Amino acid sequence: MSDKIFDWLMDNADAPIRYRLAREFLCDGRAAKRIEPELLGNREVRKWLNNLKPETPPQSYWMIHGSFDFCLENSVLKAVQLGLHAGFSQVAEAVTYFTDIFKNNPVVKPYRKVDNQLNLLMIASMLTLAGFRGDMILGYMLESLNEIHDFVKKGDYGIYISDEERSALKGVPQNWKNREFIKKELFDDGPVFPLVYDLLGLNRLYGAVDTQTDGKIDAVISYITTDRFHETVRDGYGIVICDGNKYYGMGWDPKYPGWSDVAEYIGNDGVKVGVGVPKLLFFAQYIVNYPAALKTEWYGELLACLDRCRTDGGTYIFPKKWMDESRGYAVAGHHLSFGENRRKENWLEIESTFYMQLLKNPRKSA
Predict the structure, then answer these.
(1) Facing residues of 310 across strands?
(2) Cβ(317)–Cβ(349) under 8 Å?
(3) What is the pLDDT of residues 289-310, one digit of tens each?
(4) 233-249, pLDDT tens digit by residue?
(5) Please, are residues 52 and 40 in contact by the beta-carbon 8 Å criterion?
(6) Across the chain, how many H-helices and E-strands are there?
């Protein structure tokens, strides 16, 4: 980041961006500490700390995975977006409900088994992203990584049943007749294939444990960073086959949005919910922290496309619709804002410019 852009952001941005600049880019603990009171008093930060902490009893059965702001996957991702992390006592206290779930559920092999541990997978990934490093959480993440690694090192992309097997299925909903169905053995003790949530949690483990762990993470990222993965895997992976002729729609694939043509993908923004630039921007800010992503044509094309939004002064101004906030899944780009007061005339320029620093100056951990 150039000193000029840094100074401009520090002069213009609200507390969340200034705090992240000091902590993540300058590694200036003193400056970050000075900003902390303002950060914790920020209106958006208070709002999302409240979303992070469930009511007792919780306001919904679906507190971990879902589209509501209070679901863990959205509240943690938004909290991290705003600069919050495990080092804040307010954050640690807010997620007690979820850490208790983790502590009170025995973790047994296979670690990624769906019927009783998919929630643990998501809790562990989200809390790891937020900076929590407890032995149970770290142990789970490492064992989960081992199971993904055992799968990806085979180089097997044939995760779907044949057309003949699909035609023999009974009780399939009509609107799913032509969808791809995931091989049952890959999900009975899985999902053994990587999910987008894995990429988020592993972000904080890369470079933080040991070289062997980094090597396994590299193998996972290399598995998805291929034409074959993107040509084979359907959006959302496909349909899961469960016992008793039950079927569930799968989601959470870690494909690079716009892998084959970033410019075309950006040009088609808004065609369907869950695709388009916001999803691309969300994914990009995390995937660039993995070395394999920086070597792709996709990365170069993405920067070239976004550089068209560069001003003569070196700042950036994205189209406003790219940074819209709405209820929905954070992984689909519904919560990209960095907490700027949107009554400010230059809020979009500030957030766009800071986002570009995340892409051009990847950080493995904060």
Answers:
(1) 316
(2) yes
(3) 999 999 999 999 999 999 999 9
(4) 998 899 988 776 788 88
(5) no
(6) 19, 2
